[in-house]
Design a protein that fits this description.
Blueprint (H helix, E strand, L loop, with lengths): L6 E7 L9 E7 L2 E7 L12 H12 L8 E3 L8 E3 L2 H19 L4 E5 L6 H4 L2 H9 L3 E3 L6 H11 L15 E5 L3 H4 L3 H10 L3 E5 L12 E3 L6 H14 L5 H7 E2 L1 H8 L4 H8 L3 H13 L3 E5 L9 H15 L8 E2 L11 H5 L10 E3 L3 H4 L11 E5 L3 H4 L3 H8 L5 E6 L11 E4 L8 E4 L5 E5 L12 H11 L11 H8 L21 E2 L23 E2 L3 H7 L15 E4 L22 E4 L1 H7 L6 E6 L2 E9 L7 E3 L36 E7 L3
Parallel strand pairs: 6-15, 7-14, 8-9, 8-12, 9-10, 11-21, 12-13, 15-16, 16-17, 22-26, 23-25
Antiparallel strand pairs: 1-2, 2-3, 4-5, 4-17, 18-19, 19-20, 22-27, 24-25, 24-27
């Protein structure tokens, strides 16, 4: 009888689109990942990982959905009928499809359709960027789909300077968690917040839904979705009325105070109460704790950016610490972009010098329409979907599906598992999971740099993204050394090796079992307005943005509500079972997703807890399972994002209800939470 193979434990890093970027210990038996656990290599993530990574990653790597060989479509588009082919045949198909589009319409007729799959520097964007830049393919502005509005809002105040690392909460006495579902999508804040309260600090949660962390806070404000800017501007005016603003700090470190406060004074108490749906007592209680705080920190989530006034809301919320002088010391400031301290050299890694001058840039949110627009001077005739599952993540899902059904559009795909989007491809290239290749990881929500090596060989015939695009480059005759760089070379090109925290090591040589903390230039912890200077034109925190004044006509935040066509507002935050759409193929996400509804709304519609309901608007309908709860406000529905089409009887997910034509006030972003619907019992 054969002796079972020993289980060994090897270090790794979580690559998912999450601010925490956890260090991992992976248990491997032979060539199989059998368990994924936390590691102490990163002191911030400190041996703790989310349940979804622990539960679903082994099956993601080795399960029935895993893509292990190149595939060619043999049935109608979208039918998921494929047959196995060789890598040479698959690369030939991509070459032929792209070459025909280029011959007929020019290189801009080719579109790289990618977003934020793996967050490793190499897998996320390296050899692929070089390949498409050299080709002259259309460029994409990816930020408007998610993160770009929040990033733009932050940069309008602070530039590219890194914000407060979350570990500094240990020095705070007040933390505002605003539009941030901590336990689902920012897990490692939770123990820090628990310690804050244990030592007598105050935790305030501001959110349309009573999220789990709200059950453990000192104050919860359940505002109406999309009204955050009114609350933040009203607070600025109230704090001024109380003479609580830090005039000395403002004089030294703040620009644009006068136009900002002129706007803020328009948001008086009555307007805040009526618009936000909170009481005057709640508003004053929040102002009270802010005035009393010695070190206030603010943790803003991406939920805020998903409304029309989301950019203004983030700018206004992030301005509050500046108005109160809560910068310049540990535990005071805005917890955002601390990963900006990592010395990434992305222009070198991506090969930005290869970009052809004048190449058009397309907004990723517009791609469903662009793919169907034959009136364009250069129509899109070939695309490659990789690091992305757009069918599960884009607004106006049915329109995107129509776009991908075009017979005259050549679609190449590349993914780890068979997704709803891969089903539309003409040819599929199997990608390796991050457990199967080298990469280096700079987080966006914390300030540690980490490296990972393969823990298992590539499954089947799958290949790392870097190798796939090396082979494509060779097939297209791109023979410059840039397209032959090894993964070690790419890691060294991703990070500035002269940074003092690397202690003379090349990025490709940093230890696998520890994370490197990125510090301020003086070697001390990052502190805005002490050893970190706002990277703005003025060198100050800019409350008035000349850039936004020029581009959008308003240099200070303002409220611009969307007319509500139907009585219920649907918000779709992160899921406890998926990271965006990753793990949507797991059985845990099978069947109808949950829809939370307030009892008043349920009674009005005659629907019962546990019932299957149809949620609909003019764009489509989706079936969900009702959960009646007071965790939501009356008039507000909640359903987690990232489900796949098979979860609904209609073949659509909540994304089919989300409009793509409503955009955020800055950065032209998607407005996922400006979704208005009605609910009725589902047909049996």
């Amino acid at each position: 009888m054969n002796k079972p193979l020993d289980i060994r434990t090897v270090p790794s890093v979580c690559p998912l689109d999450c601010p925490d970027t956890c260090s991992l210990n992976v248990q491997v038996q032979g060539d199989t990942v059998v368990a994924v656990k936390g590691s102490t290599a990163n002191p911030y993530t400190a041996n703790v990982i989310c349940n979804k990574v622990a539960r679903y990653y082994p099956a993601f790597v080795h399960g029935t959905a895993r893509l292990t060989h190149p595939l060619k479509r043999v049935g109608p588009r979208g039918s998921s009928q494929f047959e196995r082919i060789s890598w040479d045949a698959a690369l030939d198909m991509v070459h032929a499809g792209f070459s025909k589009a280029i011959a007929d319409h020019g290189p801009e007729s080719v579109l790289p359709f990618n977003y934020a799959g793996p967050h490793g520097e190499l897998a996320g964007g390296s050899m692929d960027r070089r390949f498409f830049y050299h080709m002259g393919a259309s460029l994409i502005n990816r930020g408007p789909l998610c993160g770009g509005v929040r990033g733009g809002a932050y940069a309008s105040l602070f530039g590219a300077a890194p914000g407060m690392p979350p570990v500094q909460i240990e020095h705070s006495d007040l933390v505002l968690v605003w539009g941030n579902n901590v336990t689902v999508s920012n897990l490692h804040l939770a123990p820090l917040l628990k310690k804050l309260r244990a030592r007598g600090g105050t935790l305030v949660v501001i959110d349309p839904k009573r999220i789990k962390i709200a059950e453990q806070c000192d104050m919860f404000l359940q505002i109406k979705p999309g009204t955050d800017v009114v609350l933040a501007m009203g607070l600025a005016a109230e704090l001024e009325r109380r003479q609580a603003l830090d005039e000395a700090f403002i004089a030294e470190w703040v620009a644009g105070f006068d136009p900002y406060m002129t706007q803020a004074r328009q948001y008086g108490l009555a307007r805040v109460v009526e618009t936000c749906g909170i009481s005057a007592a709640e508003f004053h209680a929040l102002a009270d704790v802010m005035v009393a705080a010695k070190n206030m920190a603010c943790a803003f989530g991406n939920g805020i950016e998903r409304g029309r006034s989301g950019g203004s809301a983030l700018r206004a919320g992030m301005a509050l610490p500046a108005l109160l002088g809560h910068h310049g010391r540990l535990g005071a400031g805005v917890m955002a972009k601390s990963g900006g301290a990592t010395p990434k050299t992305q222009a070198r890694l991506h090969g930005d010098h290869l970009i052809k001058p004048g190449t058009r840039v397309l907004n990723i949110v517009d791609l469903a329409n662009i793919l169907q627009d034959d009136s364009l001077e250069v129509p899109i005739k070939a695309t490659m979907i990789y690091n992305h599952n757009p069918v599960a993540t884009h607004p106006d899902q049915s329109n995107l599906m129509r776009a991908l059904m075009r017979d005259d559009l050549f679609i190449a795909g590349c993914d780890v598992v068979m997704t709803d989007s891969m089903a539309y491809c003409d040819v599929i290239l199997p990608a390796a999971s991050h457990f199967e290749f080298d990469d280096i990881y700079g987080a966006y929500g914390q300030n540690y740099l980490q490296r990972a090596a393969p823990v298992i060989p590539c499954v089947g015939e799958s290949l790392p993204n870097t190798e796939i695009f090396r082979r494509l480059a060779a097939r297209f005759g791109y023979d410059d050394a840039l397209f032959q760089a090894s993964d070690s070379q790419l890691m060294d090109e991703a990070i500035d090796e002269t940074h003092p925290q690397l202690e003379g090591k090349r990025p490709s040589e940093i230890a696998l079992d520890r994370a490197i903390e990125m510090m301020a230039p003086d070697g001390e912890p990052l502190v805005m307005c002490k050893n970190v200077t706002p990277a703005t034109p003025s060198g100050k925190i800019e409350l008035f943005s000349q850039d936004y004044e020029t581009r959008y006509g308003f240099g200070v935040p303002r409220y611009d509500p969307v007319p509500q066509a139907l009585p219920l507002t649907l918000i779709t935050p992160s899921s406890a079972k998926r990271t965006n759409a990753t793990f949507g193929s797991d059985p845990a996400s099978a069947g109808p997703e949950m829809l939370e509804m307030h009892p008043k709304d349920a009674r009005k519609r005659g629907v019962q807890d546990g019932a299957l309901v149809s949620v609909w608007n003019a764009l489509g309908a989706v079936t969900l399972q009702l959960k009646v709860t007071e965790a939501t406000r009356p008039g507000v529905l909640y359903s987690p994002k990232g489900t796949w089409r098979g979860s609904s009887q209609t073949g659509f997910t909540v994304n089919t209800l989300i409009p793509a034509d409503i955009r955020t006030d800055i950065e032209d972003g998607a407005c996922y939470h400006e979704t208005f619907v009605e609910v009725k019992p589902a047909k049996a």
